[in-house]
User: Fold these one by one.
Assistant:
Number 1:
Amino acid sequence: MPGHRALAATPRLDAKTRRKLEDQRRMAFRRAIEHYNEERRLNRQIDDYPELIAIDYLRTLRASARAAAH
């Protein structure tokens, strides 16, 4: 059981520290979900305007060409 070995390798933590670590993991997970949802929302908005995608692509090409020239 891989989980059993992982638990055996971690030191014993008091309840306060354990709750703090669980809260940190939970908040990181929540931030990841919020970031994912925000990306999806922005992509749906951008999909309504395909010409903006083309303009952004052209700007990126020009910027990379300028960077390569210098």
Number 2:
Amino acid sequence: MSLRRASAVLLILAGLGLAGCAAESAPPAESSQAAPESDAVEFAPASGEVITAEQYTLTLPEGWGYPDGAPDGFDETTFAADLTIEDGYRDNVNILVSPGGEVTSEQVEEAGVAQLEEAGASDVKALERVTAAGSESAHLSARVEQGETPYVIDQFYLVNAGQTYIVTFASDVEKSQEERDALAQSVLVTWQWT
């Protein structure tokens, strides 16, 4: 599957993942998710290229960058992929601004799962929350079947100055949750607001 096609699907899923959350009128349900405790696993920070956007900076894993064939609407500050992979699924990350402004973890967990399922994702889960960029973030995971190459997404929701940034990592389905967490966290621990 082309990187452009896979990323376009991620764009749709990420947008759907939060578009309805801010509009929820019912109070959020009690969540069984908990923020990581002090003995949480420490992740080594990524040591590749540093990305600087107007609102944030982050560091990519080694060998990652802005690829040829990146989807329309993204640039070097909002999309990156593993450039070391020649054949097979190219893991990638994209960053979108929520159309709903600031969204809570409870809203994401309550509405985001259903919306990802409605968009065609399967095995959608609200996983344990993480601390990223100085605040708590919901963590949704889902399998996406598009074309011949299925992949798995892990979405995180970073909040700053009344706005939510949806950070979506897409990985080969063969990668374990532990491998995907280590990759995502290696980037998230480098995230800083500017």
